[in-house]
Write a structure and sequence with these properties.
It comes from Pseudomonas cuatrocienegasensis. Pfam families: adh_short_C2. InterPro entries: KR_dom, NAD(P)-bd_dom_sf, Sc_DH/Rdtase_CS, SDR_fam. Belongs to the short-chain dehydrogenases/reductases (SDR) family. The chain is an alpha/beta fold. It has a single domain, classed as NAD(P)-binding Rossmann-like Domain (Rossmann fold), CATH 3.40.50. The chain contains seven helices and seven strands; from the N terminus they run βαβαβαβαβαβααβ. The protein has a seven-stranded parallel β-sheet, sandwiched between helices.
């Protein structure tokens, strides 16, 4: 299996894309460190993965706390002795144009979507560099690759995350550490409920699907498979890549 005994940290692991990524990596032999804020959901997921034969532990953390990454990495190294993969998936969406976005909302979105990924990446890098191998995958968005209306802070944060991806990829390209980003479009997750707030969910999905060339939103498993691929040795010559998983949206 591609990730046999490899230790993989996945943030935002208790729902949506993060949960699907955790399940996909576990199915390929990975040892999982699951990160999220909800202890009950995290413990339940770790138990479900263990019942399928995977090794997994949950670490409850608020990633906007600058001290959280050190605790996550220390717990991982104490439990498993190494870190092979980091998937920076935790994120949030707050709708609003520049005039509608408050300073507090701007700071919230940038802190979780960019700064938290930067801090956790910085914390895992010494271990990866010491073993001369490692893979960091940032879950960005197709809105990182193009403009969009009504979500200024989110779009800027995801664009910054892709630039962080490219810069780290270049910094460590000769030292065995690869850094890539997966850029999904609208995906059937709880975050989708934030689109067109107040409208019927089925109508939302249909409205979003109408703007996607393939005519539908993504399934979480499709995004998870892309994340697993770029994290794996099958993508050994990929670093600094921004991989759209968007049904053709960014090709328009």
């Amino acid at each position: 299996m591609l990730f046999q005994d490899q230790v993989c940290i996945v943030t935002g692991a208790t729902s949506g894309i993060g949960r699907a990524v955790a399940e996909e990596l576990a199915s390929k032999g990975a040892v999982l460190v699951l990160v999220g804020r909800d202890q009950a959901k995290g413990d339940a997921l770790a138990m479900a993965l263990a019942e399928r034969g995977a090794r997994a532990l949950f670490f409850a953390a608020d990633l906007t706390d600058p001290h959280a990454p050190r605790g996550i990495v220390q717990a991982t190294l104490e439990s498993f002795g190494r870190i092979d993969v980091l998937v920076n998936n935790a994120g949030m969406l707050i709708n609003g144009s520049a005039l509608e976005c408050t300073d507090e909302q701007w700071d919230q979105v940038l802190d979780l979507n960019v700064s938290a990924a930067f801090r956790l990446s910085r914390e895992v890098l010494p271990s990866m560099l010491k073993q001369a191998s490692g893979s960091i995958v940032n879950v960005a968005s197709d809105w990182a690759l193009m403009g969009a209306k009504g979500a200024t802070a989110y779009c800027v944060s995801k664009a910054a995350l892709t630039q962080l991806t490219r810069c780290m990829a270049l910094d460590y390209a000769t030292q065995g550490v690869r850094v890539n980003a997966v850029c999904p479009s609208d995906t059937d997750t709880p975050m989708l409920d934030l689109a067109y707030e107040g409208d019927d969910r089925e109508w939302k999905v249909q409205a979003l699907a109408a703007s996607i060339p393939m005519g539908r939103v993504a399934h979480v498993g499709e995004v998870a498979k892309a994340v697993a691929f770029v994290a794996s040795s099958d993508a050994s010559f990929m670093t600094g890549a921004l991989v759209p998983v968007d049904g053709g949206t960014s090709a328009q």
